[in-house]
Amino acid sequence: MKTTAENINDKELLERCSSGDNSGYSLLYHRYSKAVFNSIYRIVNDREDAEDILQEVFLKAFSEIKSLKNVESFGGWIKRIAINQSLNYLRKNKIYFTEIEDDKILDIEDDELEAKLAMESRVKELQNIIAGFPLQTRTIVNLFLFEEMPQEEIAKILNIPHGTVRSYYHRAKKKIFEKLNPKHHNERFA
């Protein structure tokens, strides 16, 4: 029976890396690069910069791989490196957060396909709305919604008060709701 990359767990891939087997690095990269790229891109909102940061993230992770204490958490560990590298990129480019007062279809029935396409359309619409937000708002919304990072942790890594994160998020949520559900004027009376 041939072993496929999907059947090899992260622990075994990390052991390969430790023993000097380059296939471990390659398989880890292929397993995680898309998700890591998406996390980076949602923060920096530029494909070329995201690609550059992705390479930096994997170089940093692979050079520090021996410091990983829990091999089962490689995915979370590399995403954390990606988020930190992305935020460092923003800081290096003088983009700061300011405090304010008080973001394969297989054999699917037609109905399921329509529902899936409608949902994908709404998700794309949501992503487009978020992409149009100012950088600070977009970063907070992406970290909270897509990276599932608690607001307290977002505040800590961005070095801003928790109330500011909460305010940015609630304002963004209101704008998202307004854009996804525009108020219709009484069309029935037109």
Indicate the percent of residues in helices: 55-70%
Mean pLDDT: 79
Low-pLDDT ranges: 102-108, 184-190
Number of domains: 2
CATH architecture of the largest domain: Orthogonal Bundle
- CATH class group of the largest domain: Mainly Alpha
The CATH topology label of the largest domain is Rna Polymerase Sigma Factor, Chain: A
Distance between the termini: 69 Å
How big is the Rg?
20 Å
Q: CATH-wise, what's the superfamily of the largest domain? A: RNA polymerase sigma factor, region 2, helix turn helix motif
The helix/strand class is: mainly alpha
**Number of continuous helical runs:** 8
Q: How would you concisely characterize the structure shown here?
A:
With 190 residues, the protein is mainly α.
Characteristics of this structure?
disordered C terminus; Arc Repressor Mutant, subunit A; 190 residues; single chain; 2 domains; Rna Polymerase Sigma Factor, Chain: A; mainly alpha
List the helices and strands and how they pair.
Elements: H1 10-18, H2 22-44, H3 47-63, H4 74-92, H5 110-131, H6 135-145, H7 151-158, H8 162-180
